[in-house]
Design goal:
By secondary structure, the chain is α/β, with parallel strands linked by helices. The chain is 60% helix and 7% strand. It has a single domain, classed as Rossmann fold (3-Layer(aba) Sandwich).
């Protein structure tokens, strides 16, 4: 029997650049609660990632501890570390979750890496006494590949393969949880029907989807979130195109409320396992090394931006104190002049 929790987290799972940021912001505007430290926007996502950057850095470190990385195309299925190490990482994740979310009733955890680390994060939520509802946005993998080509210079074959892996991991790890598959294009076209399907699938309404929240969502889900409309044919992607098309068809059907047969997902997982046995040893170490450098740069960038924000906050407080002192001095001067 499924355990009942007073607190329930919303987990946004799926591949990087696949609409997870837009989905997370919609949920945040509808009442789910973001963590204390959220990754700001940049040239690749001006409206923000709504991602807990400290948890993202932690997840990168956990992946590297297993010799993997976020863009490892063969990181399936989840491979636990030795029991003592796995327990240590889980305990650290519990403390980090509590520090980031405090006593939030509906924590919103959006980091694509959670998709491939879901068994660990489910233990974290259980230890924190928090239930889970899962939302998985579905976006065409070639749109994802176009975005990653601009940001990371990834070839389409790699991006599409990593998309398949993330979607398989998200689906397999959440089968016994309340979950909803959401069309990213549908959200941008008309989010209300998508949210209605989401609420039915999750078994209840979003925490605070008020009229005011709906207006904010209307303003956020604008056309400038749509990039890479010209997607092309998946069949033209070498090695992985047909497999990805079968997986996309499954998730597209699931996003309409269907319950399609999982055979295409099982076949895709088997194909990835075969590819891993043939070339995984050549790919994963290089991927891990590159990701280590990227993660360190990200960490330093986030620290710098947080420090800049703290300095700006202190400067604003100082300016306000100076204004208050000037006001008080003016009152005193006026009082003295009238004596």
């Amino acid at each position: 029997m499924q355990q009942t929790f007073e607190r329930t987290a919303y987990l946004v799972l799926g591949m990087h650049r696949s609409g997870t940021s837009a989905t997370a912001q919609l949920l945040a505007l509808a009442g789910a609660e973001l963590p204390d430290n959220v990754m700001p926007g940049d040239q690749h996502n001006a409206k923000g990632y709504f991602e807990p950057w400290k948890i993202s850095v932690f997840n990168d470190q956990r992946l590297r501890a297993a010799g993997s990385a976020w863009d490892d195309p063969f990181n399936l299925p989840y491979a636990p570390l030795a029991p003592d190490a796995e327990a240590d990482w889980t305990a650290r994740a519990v403390e980090l979750f509590k520090a980031e979310f405090g006593e939030s009733i509906h924590p919103l955890l959006k980091d694509p890496r959670v998709s491939v680390l879901l068994p660990m994060w489910r233990r974290v939520l259980d230890a924190a006494g928090v239930g889970a509802r899962v939302v998985i946005p579905v976006r065409h993998p070639l749109a994802v590949a176009g975005s990653l080509a601009r940001r990371d210079a990834f070839p389409a074959e790699k991006s599409v393969l990593v998309w398949v892996l993330y979607m398989l991991a998200a689906e397999a790890g959440s089968r016994d949880l309340p979950r909803a598959f959401v069309s990213y294009d549908g959200l941008l076209a008309d989010w209300r029907p998508e949210v209605a399907r989401m609420e039915r699938a999750l078994g209840g309404p979003l925490p605070r989807l008020t009229e005011h929240a709906a207006k904010e969502i209307d303003g956020f889900l604008s056309k400038d979130l749509r990039h890479n409309d010209g997607m092309g044919e998946l069949s033209q992607v070498p090695m992985v195109g047909p497999m990805a098309q079968a997986v996309l068809d499954w998730f597209t059907a699931a996003a309409t409320g269907e319950a399609p047969d999982r055979t295409p997902l099982e076949q895709a997982a088997a194909q990835i396992a075969q590819m891993k046995s043939q070339m995984g040893v050549l790919v994963s170490p290089v991927t891990s090394t590159l990701d280590s450098t990227r993660a360190e740069l990200l960490y330093q960038r986030q620290l710098s931006e947080v420090q800049d924000q703290q300095i700006q906050s202190l400067e604003r407080q100082l300016a306000e104190l100076r204004q208050e002192r000037a006001r008080i001095e003016a009152v005193v001067d006026t009082a003295l002049a009238g004596r």
